[in-house]
Amino acid sequence: MIILGIETSCDETALALIETRGHEKTADGSGGNAFECRVIQSLVHSQAELHSAYGGVFPTLAKREHGKNIVPLLHKLLIESSVGSEFSEVGPPSGCPRGPTSENLTNSQFRDVLESFRADVERQNPELFESFAGADFLKTVPPIDRIAVTEGPGLEPALWVGINFARMLAALWSVPIIPVDHMEGHILGSLLPSDATNGVWQKLYDAPLPAIALLISGGHTELVKISKLGNYEILGRTKDDAVGEAFDKAARLIGLPYPGGPHLAELSHKAWEEKIPSPVKLPRPMLKSGDLDFSFAGLKTAVLYAVRDAAGQKFPSANHPSTTDHFELSDTFKKGLAHEFEQAVADTLDGKLRMAIERIGAKSIIVGGGVSANHFLRQRFTATAGEYNIPIFMPSRHISGDNALMIAVAGALHHSDAKTPRLIRAHGTKRLGI
Ligand code: KG4
Ligand code: ZN
Questions:
Q1: What is the pLDDT of residue 324?
Q2: Of these four, 4, 56, 179, 344, which has the most CB atoms within 10 Å of its CB?
Q3: Is the distance from the beta carbon of residue 262 to the nearest atom of ligand 1 less than 6 Å?
Q4: Contact 175, 147 (CB under 8 A)
Q5: Can you list the alpha helix ranges (DSSP code H) found in 191-326?
Q6: What is the tens place of the pLDDT at every residue in 185-243?
Q7: DSSP state letters, 156-209
Q8: Which CATH number fits domain 2-205+399-423: 1.10.1040.10, 3.40.50.300, 3.30.420.40, 3.90.180.10?
């Protein structure tokens, strides 16, 4: 089975193609996670630079950019993966409900599908509609059996672009759609041994269950109990800012560009190399709350106060922190503060992770989401897994951020939930397991 993954929940426009086999191995034909997959191609177009002017993701801009970029990105994906020629030689994978074929649609067939979406999509996503209408390559039907698309959580205007694109492609090529939860995508991304396009068949890591997943991204901070892949229970979540958001806001306060997480991590590393002490002690929020929830807004405010004190001059309010040209901070201070911030985050996440491991008797740890790229945090969680003597699974660096490969893989897990094109809609506040 060949699955096209589509991801547009935030500021990355991403598409991927995978091939899967072995779904038929369980009684219900769902295959569970027994399937094997291989990566055909995975492309990510980041809008981060455009949003940096706003110091965060600007939803209307994200929507417009997805609409402009997603059709050309699909063209690139299909050319680079040459699915038509490659797969027509191989023939249909066994157990595949719809074998790969290459057929052409007539102009009038293409127009009919386009017209059937005009009222719906042209108004909501004019850039997407226009770009789709002018894309002749779409008339050649590629050997794609399922389209997996992120339905949420995320920015609704951005999510709709991916969903509308999936609906139009699905109608054009007569392919069912699998709606995918973005956070489940991050979980599965961490269980994928390799994101390489080397044609190698791989099975997902068989994480011993129950597993505890720590999901840390720009929009989410969650501890999730996994009793079976596809079966999730949120045990704790942030009450305010997500951890990635806290990284980005703290980074902005010390004058780093968006997205600040990786820049702050770099500064912190320098502090460690140069043995720069912390200039202040930041709080470890909710570490003693006794539950598995998080809160990072106070940590951000503590960074604001530290910066204001160090600058020793007038500083914008906590609600409108602006870092540009208002004050001077020494490099040493910035490095030291970045390191202290990273340590405060690590202590907090790690403390709650330990509580969760003990509470559910976790037999493995899965860490997912953009913040899992952080080297210091990875080391910390790895040490914790070692102490509890349980395995830990983290995504390879390339797929720690948002991507469509993880969406396609999550789609493979749920391929039997495929829906007809028109039934799917965006769920900006979707929660795992609900
Ligand atoms: O999962 P993701 O790519 O997008 C969302 O679904 O939100 O996560 C993005 C977040 C951003 O806040 C970014 O600053 C953060 O991940 N991030 C990092 C690092 N790399 C990315 N935070 C800390 N250290 C990093 N190395
Ligand atoms: Zn994400």
A1: 46
A2: 4
A3: yes
A4: yes
A5: 243-253, 260-273, 297-311
A6: 999 999 999 999 999 999 999 999 999 999 999 999 999 999 999 999 999 999 999 99
A7: HHHHHHHHHHHHHHHHHHT--EEEEEHHHHHHHHHT-S----S---EEPP---S
A8: 3.30.420.40
Residue 261 Cβ < 6 Å to ligand 1? yes
CA of 390 to the centre of ligand 2 (A): 25
Could you tell me the pTM of the whole model?
A: 0.92
Q: Tokens at residue 398, please?
A: 């390339």
Ligand nearest to the CA of 267: 1
What ligand 1 atom has the least distance to the C-alpha of 377? Answer: 24
CA 398 – ligand 2 centroid, Å: 13
| Span(s) in the chain for CATH 3.30.420.40 | 2-205+399-423, 211-390
Domain 211-390 class, CATH top level: alpha beta
Q: Is 154 in the pocket of ligand 1 (CB under 6 A)?
A: no
* pLDDT per residue as tens digits for the range 245-275: 999 999 999 999 989 999 999 999 999 999 9
What pLDDT was estimated at residue 313?
58
399 touches ligand 1 (CB under 6 Å): no
CA 195 to CA 180: how far, in whole Å?
19
Closest ligand (CA of 257): 1
**CB-ligand 1 contact for 369 (6 Å cutoff):** yes
Strand segments, DSSP code E, in 31-132 are 36-46, 103-104
Element housing 6 (H / E): strand 2-7
In this prediction, residue 100 has a pLDDT band, given cuts at 50, 70 and 90, of very low
Query: Sorting pLDDT into bands at 50, 70 and 90, what band is 86?
Result: very low
Picking from 92, 47, 9, 29, the residue whose alpha carbon sits closest to that of residue 414 is 29
Distance from residue 101's CA to the centre of ligand 2 (Å): 33
